[in-house]
């Protein structure tokens, strides 16, 4: 299961460009018709001027500006310059080394930077500790930069999740739900608890997972109505795994028109990476959702359910589903063989 780093905790203002535009000494732009590129140039010039005046935070702002634009090499250069004075720069540099953004992957250095943050007594690092702890849990879970240890991963994620604190790491809360759903650490009651906490705090990933748990009675009494509510809302928010299960639900209820319409929308996505980036859901579960929708669309084409029968197109989609996720395709093929779908 490929995990993603916890992003730097965002300010209420959102992007760094917007944050800069609200500073009292930032050049006035409200009455001008500037393009995004123009604003970037103005911000860069403004920050470089502040840096010359000795403003350390301006280095971080400039690095973050580059980071948000995907100019990772330039971003890392700025973060490295001030990582000893600016904890946020240290955090971002750690993420970049671990994930290989703008540099070669250096998992050990990424882990060291995160360890410095979680062990720091500085008040300025307090808002970063939960995110850094999540990333340390990720390192132990993946076994990169440290020796693999599920127990240490769990320990760091529990710290980062902080009993469901909405200001703690949302990724850690959701990941604990996934962790307790997967062998050899299965504890579905704990999984349901953590997905509930994460969902209540806004996790799109966990909202879809909760829908599936309600649907099959995993860790909670089966509740189809609650399942459909979770799946529909998560699907509307872009959770592809929830969308795939919603296609399955429509098919099982013989709502073939709805199943085909939704499946077509899912199958039309030709760039899964864009879906993952847009939703911040786990890539493996996003792929599972697409594979489910692909298989069910193939089945509808095969049988001519709410769509013109086309055996050739069906075979192509069956094959595509298997290429996307062989396990999902095999499970659905088993159900097809035994007449369940």
From TrEMBL:
It comes from the Eukaryota. It is found in: Cytoplasm. The keyword Cytoplasm applies. GO terms for cellular component: cytoplasm. Keywords: Cytoplasm, Repeat, TPR repeat. May act as an adapter that regulates LRP2 function. This is LRP2-binding protein. The lineage of its organism: Eukaryota, Metazoa, Chordata, Craniata, Vertebrata. The gene is lrp2bp.
């Amino acid at each position: 299961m490929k995990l993603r780093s916890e992003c730097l905790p965002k300010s209420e203002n959102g992007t760094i460009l917007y944050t800069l535009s609200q500073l009292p000494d930032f050049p006035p732009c409200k009455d001008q018709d500037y393009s995004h590129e123009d604003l970037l140039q103005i911000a860069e010039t403004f920050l470089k001027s502040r840096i010359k005046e000795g403003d350390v935070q301006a280095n971080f702002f400039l690095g973050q500006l580059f980071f948000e634009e995907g100019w990772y090499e330039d971003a890392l250069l700025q973060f490295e310059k001030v990582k000893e004075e600016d904890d946020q720069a240290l955090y971002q540099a750690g993420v970049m080394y671990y994930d290989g953004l703008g540099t070669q992957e250096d998992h050990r250095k990424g882990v060291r930077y995160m360890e410095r943050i979680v062990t720091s007594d500085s008040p300025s690092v307090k808002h970063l500790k939960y995110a850094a702890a999540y990333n340390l849990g990720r390192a132990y879970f993946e076994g990169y930069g440290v020796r693999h240890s599920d127990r240490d991963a769990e320990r760091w994620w529990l710290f980062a999740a902080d009993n469901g604190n909405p200001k703690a790491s949302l990724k850690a809360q959701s990941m604990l739900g996934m962790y307790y759903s997967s062998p050899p650490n299965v504890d579905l009651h704990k999984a349901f608890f953590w997905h509930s906490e994460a969902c209540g705090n806004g996790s799109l990933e966990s909202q879809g997972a909760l829908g599936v748990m309600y649907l099959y009675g995993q860790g909670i009494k089966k509740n189809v109505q609650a399942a459909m509510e979770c799946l529909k809302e998560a699907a509307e928010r872009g959770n592809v795994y929830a969308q795939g299960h919603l296609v399955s639900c429509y098919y099982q209820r013989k709502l073939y028109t709805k199943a085909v319409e939704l499946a077509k929308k899912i199958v039309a996505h030709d760039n899964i990476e864009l879906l993952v980036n847009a939703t911040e859901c786990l890539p493996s579960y996003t792929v599972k959702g697409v594979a489910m929708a692909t298989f069910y669309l193939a089945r509808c084409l095969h049988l001519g359910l709410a769509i013109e029968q086309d055996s050739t197109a069906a075979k192509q989609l069956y094959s595509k589903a298997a290429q996307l996720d062989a396990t999902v395709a095999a499970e659905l093929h088993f159900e097809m063989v035994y007449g369940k779908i």
